[in-house]
C-alpha cells in the first residue's frame, strides 16, 4: 500500500474512524489525526505547510494492515474530480478504434491494424498544438482519417472532463463498479494530482478512471455514461505531498504498473511511462483551471498509456472486465491502489454526500470559525 520510501514521504489520507471520516497525516512512521486542525483535505491542502500540521497520534504505520478495507476512504473530499483524456498517443489510437468500431469489440481488431499503420508512427513524436501537428491534421482530414479524439490528442486544447462528483470516489480495498450493461470495458491506471484552491498542485496519488469502451465508442456524447457511474472512480491510497524528496519531476518520470487477476485464472499486466505523456502535467492543470476558479480545489487524473488489447475469451474480442477481477495499480513512490471489480448495480450505493459530511463535522464541533486557515487562503 505504501511508497517504497515511506520514511521520506508525507502522506495525506482519509480514514473512517469511530467518529466519522477523518483527515490523517502520515509522517515519521506514525498515522496522525489532523481533523481538528483541518476538518477536510481541501482545508489541509490550502495551508502553506500542510506537512507541518500538528495532530493526534493514532497508531504506527505498521498497524494500517490491521484496518478493514472499509476504513480507507478516497483521499479527496470537497474537491471536484476532473480528468484529462487522450494524453498519450496510444490511447488516442485506441479511442479512434472505438469510434470507428462504433463500440463493437468484434470490429476492433481489423480496424486497429489499419489505424495503427496510418497514424501510429506519426502521432507518437508530435507536440500537441505545434505546426507539425497541424500539418498532420490536414493530411488526415484529406485522407478521411480525422477524428474528434485526434483533435484533443494533437490539437492545442486538451480533453478535460468531470469524472465524478465530490465524495463519490472509492478508496483502497473498495469494490469498483462497471455498468452491468457494458460488454467492453477496462481499467485506466493513472497518476492523480491534488490541486488546491489557488490552482497549485500540492501532491499526487493513484487512480483508476474506469472506462466503458462500448459506450464511449458509440458516441462521444455518452462520455458521462462511460465514466460517471456508481463506484466507477477509485483513488488512493494516500496523497503524497510534494516536498524536497518528491516533486513534479517525480510525477513526470513515474512508472505506473497495472495488474489484473481474474477468478477465471486470467492475468494481465501493463505499464504506463509518464515520460511518454503528450502534455506536461502542469499544462494539464492550467487547462483544467481554464477561466474558472475552484474554491475547494480539484483532483486531476492525468490520463493513461494503458489500453488493453489482449484477448480474454474468444479471439479478436480483446479485454473486458469480469466480476471478481482484482485490479492493482502501483508506482514505487506512490504505493499501490487495490480494488475488486463488481457491477455499479451491485456495488454499495453512494449515500454519504456533502450534506452528510457537513452534518458529521458539525456534530463533532469541527466547523467553528477557523481564522488561521481562512487567513492563509485569503493570502
Automatic annotation (TrEMBL):
<comment type="similarity">
    <text>Belongs to the FAH family.</text>
</comment>
<dbReference type="GO" id="GO:0016787">
    <property type="term" value="F:hydrolase activity"/>
</dbReference>
<dbReference type="GO" id="GO:0044281">
    <property type="term" value="P:small molecule metabolic process"/>
</dbReference>
<dbReference type="InterPro" id="IPR011234">
    <property type="entry name" value="Fumarylacetoacetase-like_C"/>
</dbReference>
<keyword id="KW-0479">Metal-binding</keyword>
<keyword id="KW-0378">Hydrolase</keyword>
<dbReference type="InterPro" id="IPR036663">
    <property type="entry name" value="Fumarylacetoacetase_C_sf"/>
</dbReference>
<dbReference type="GO" id="GO:0046872">
    <property type="term" value="F:metal ion binding"/>
</dbReference>
<dbReference type="Pfam" id="PF01557">
    <property type="entry name" value="FAA_hydrolase"/>
</dbReference>
<dbReference type="InterPro" id="IPR051121">
    <property type="entry name" value="FAH"/>
</dbReference>
<protein>
    <submittedName>
        <fullName>Fumarylacetoacetate hydrolase family protein</fullName>
    </submittedName>
</protein>
<feature type="domain" description="Fumarylacetoacetase-like C-terminal">
    <location>
        <begin position="202"/>
        <end position="341"/>
    </location>
</feature>
